[in-house]
């Protein structure tokens, strides 16, 4: 450890675990974007709130940027450390701290994995309902930083809805205890909600109190083959009318192609342009009859041409794998990703324009799209040809993103639905936020982080 700044940090916090190992620097200095070369000064692994405060105060004194690091499963460059920042890995702060059965509040450290939270809630007969494919590796702190959504937003909402309280270390090293689990608290600005979705630019979440809820009744999963894009919203409207939905997801034939190549089982003999995976309550015979009636109606109307329904947990998992396995199956192809949203009512018109744009601009690229159609969130993945230079590929994709942003703007949409702005989408923030809003956001950051050390360069 030759850098005198790190020697000073080690002197101030003698118990702090600190690494400058090249493998650690590379691993913790990047996220799933893989577009920036990791170059952090060092990786710190605090085990307590006091150590996090000490790191932030030291960083202020020496003028080093601080990059909070969770599971680094983000897709917007929000956890990248490429300019000599100190990375604060929260891997060691991964414990359950408390459970209150009366309030149904589970208090955890930020480094706990989402799947571990699910398991703890289940052991207590309850549910933490935020869920997505990266549950085994993403961390609660990162979920809060991006207000993560996932596959059950249609029923349960985003992470924001489930945060009862937060402890946060600000950019000056001050510890804030926000809301303290209160259901009602009309005492001024709710700073908790400023932190949720702030991408680590205001401070570091060091403790989170999570609301749990009763588990839903037994459910079933249905996979539907849809012959045309304009049928998707008709199927959704009918499903929402007839069934109690937990999820309504769709993907294209190209997405299915890659998931099958990655080891999933083919659901139907024939290939179809679009597929829907929907999960719904099936607690009794009446609910099951409603599901069958829904399917028959869609079949008779020609909105659906084939279908399968789960009759066991194993079958439900196999059907879900067709949707949840998409991101992992695409990873080897180094995709350029767009994560966009529009109001649900605007989805049909936006999708029609989007498909026309992508077909025109990407005639020789494999474009894979899928999404949470029940909440207006679409994921667009452009796969890089193996023989194309990465910089040229990104430049072409960013040109198309600018055109896509114009389409989104006409439909009142957002360039980022659930992965944040980070570095990737920063050029297009003004398409979603007005100049006045951005000015206020800068002002808020200046108060929380006057020296600009918290996740510098991200979002703003």
From TrEMBL:
InterPro entries: FAD-bd_oxidored_4_C, FAD-bd_PCMH, FAD-bd_PCMH-like_sf, FAD-bd_PCMH_sub1, FAD-bd_PCMH_sub2, FAD-linked_Oxase-like_C, FAD-oxidored/transferase_4, Oxid_FAD_bind_N. It comes from the Bacteria. The keyword Magnesium does not apply. PROSITE patterns: FAD_PCMH. GO terms for molecular function: FAD binding; oxidoreductase activity. Its cofactor is FAD. Transmembrane segments: none annotated. Keywords: FAD, Flavoprotein, Oxidoreductase. GO terms for biological process: respiratory electron transport chain. Belongs to the FAD-binding oxidoreductase/transferase type 4 family. This is FAD-binding oxidoreductase. It comes from Luteibacter rhizovicinus DSM 16549.
């Amino acid at each position: 450890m030759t850098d005198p700044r790190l020697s000073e940090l080690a002197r101030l916090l003698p118990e702090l675990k600190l690494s400058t190992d090249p493998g650690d620097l590379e691993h913790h200095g990047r996220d799933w974007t893989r577009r920036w070369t990791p170059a952090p000064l060092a990786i710190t692994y605090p085990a307590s709130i006091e150590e996090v405060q000490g790191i932030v105060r030291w960083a202020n004194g020496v003028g080093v940027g601080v990059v909070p690091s969770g599971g680094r499963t983000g897709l917007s460059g929000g956890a990248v450390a490429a300019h000599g920042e100190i990375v604060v890995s929260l891997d060691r702060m991964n414990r359950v701290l408390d459970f209150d059965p009366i309030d149904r509040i589970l208090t955890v450290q930020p480094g706990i994995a989402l799947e571990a939270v699910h398991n703890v809630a289940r052991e207590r007969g309850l549910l933490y309902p935020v869920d997505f494919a990266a549950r085994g590796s993403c961390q609660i702190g990162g979920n809060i930083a991006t207000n993560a959504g996932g596959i059950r937003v249609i029923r349960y909402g985003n992470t924001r809805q489930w945060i009862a309280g937060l402890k946060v270390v600000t950019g000056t090293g001050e510890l804030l205890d926000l809301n303290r689990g209160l259901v009602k608290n009309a005492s001024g600005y709710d700073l908790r909600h400023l932190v949720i979705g702030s991408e680590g630019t205001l401070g570091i979440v060091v403790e989170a109190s999570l609301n749990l809820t009763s588990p839903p009744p037994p459910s079933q999963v249905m996979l539907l083959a849809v012959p045309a894009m304009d049928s998707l919203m008709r199927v959704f409207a009918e499903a929402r009318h007839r069934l109690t939905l937990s999820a309504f997801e769709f993907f294209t034939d190209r997405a299915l192609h890659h998931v099958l190549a990655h080891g999933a089982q083919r659901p139907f003999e024939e290939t179809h342009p679009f597929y829907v995976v929907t999960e719904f309550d099936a607690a009794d015979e009446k609910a099951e009859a409603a599901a069958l009636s829904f399917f028959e109606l869609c079949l008779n109307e020609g909105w659906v041409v084939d279908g399968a329904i789960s009759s066991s947990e194993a079958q439900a998992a196999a059907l879900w794998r067709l949707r949840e396995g998409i991101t992992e199956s695409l990873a080897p192809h180094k995709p350029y990703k767009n994560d966009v949203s529009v109001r649900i009512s605007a989805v049909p018109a936006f999708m029609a324009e989007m498909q026309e744009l992508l077909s025109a601009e990407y005639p020789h690229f494999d474009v894979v799209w899928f999404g949470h159609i029940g909440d207006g969130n679409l994921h667009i993945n452009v796969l890089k040809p193996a023989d194309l230079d990465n910089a040229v590929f990104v430049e072409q994709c960013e040109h198309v993103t600018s055109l896509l942003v114009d389409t989104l703007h006409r439909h009142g949409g957002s360039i980022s639905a659930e992965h944040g702005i980070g570095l990737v989408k920063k050029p297009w923030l003004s398409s979603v936020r007005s100049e006045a809003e951005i000015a206020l956001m800068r002002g808020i950051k200046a108060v929380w982080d006057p020296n600009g050390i918290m996740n510098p360069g991200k979002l703003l």
